[in-house]
Amino acid sequence: GSVLGILALMGMVIAGISALTQDIGDNFGALGIDNNYASLIDLRSEAVFLGYEFDEAVGAVDELTSSLGVSVDEAAGLSVAVLDTARAIGMGVTEMASLQSVIANVTSTSAEGANNFVKQAAALAQVNNVAPKDILNDMSDASDEIAKYTDDTGDNMVRAAIRARQLGMSLSDAAGIADGLLDFQTSLSKEMEASVMIGKPLN
Fold it and tell me: What are the tens digits of pLDDT across the range 27-73?
């Protein structure tokens, strides 16, 4: 009886390992199994623990590898933190990975530090009575605006996103207004220059 029980348990373990290998192979191919097995197993375990499907974790890896130019192995390690923070804040995994990629690419923050940046942004939103999820989703949707207007740390865009939400706008809305004001200022400056050159005001 005990022998049969041990054999049954061994069969379950082997079947489980085979399923894990198949899961990784389906998403990352033979190279994923050969070169990144340990990190992808860790990622899959974290995904299951947090209630995610492995496909969602794969989405984070794909986003990080394509946006940051890192290896699958490094992206898998970064994705563990992405999953955890996305679950804590209530954001989508791919959106969280995208936001962290933007932060890492346009500020002085490292890929590893981008996760802490997001947590600090969420905490600042909470202190200002604004839903962290709304602020971070706004920032995720406004990657072009962040790249255009951010300072070296990215802190100004967090404050801008919070202020925009307090005014009932998104970060993209606020950036659009800023663009309009800059266009107006440029137009006014050019009009004044032309007026000086011709010696009379323009109508």
Answer: 666 555 556 778 888 888 888 899 998 889 999 999 999 999 999 88
| CA gap 6, 10 in Å, rounded | 6
Question: DSSP string of 108-148?
Answer: S--HHHHHHHHHHHHHHHHHTT--HHHHHHHHHHTHHHHHH
Q: Is 195 helix (H, G, I), strand (E, B) or coil?
A: helix
Burial (Cβ within 10 Å: 0-12, 13-18, ≥19) of residue 196: exposed
* Helix ranges, the chain (H): 2-50, 54-68, 72-89, 93-106, 111-127, 132-141, 143-149, 155-166, 171-198
Q: Could you tell me if 67 and 54 are in contact, meaning their C-beta atoms sit under 8 angstroms apart?
A: no
Residue type, 120: Q
pTM value? 0.73
* pLDDT tens digits, 97-116: 999 999 999 888 999 999 99
How many angstroms separate the CA atoms of 177 and 173, rounded? Answer: 6
Cα 22 to Cα 73: distance, rounded to the nearest angstrom:
18
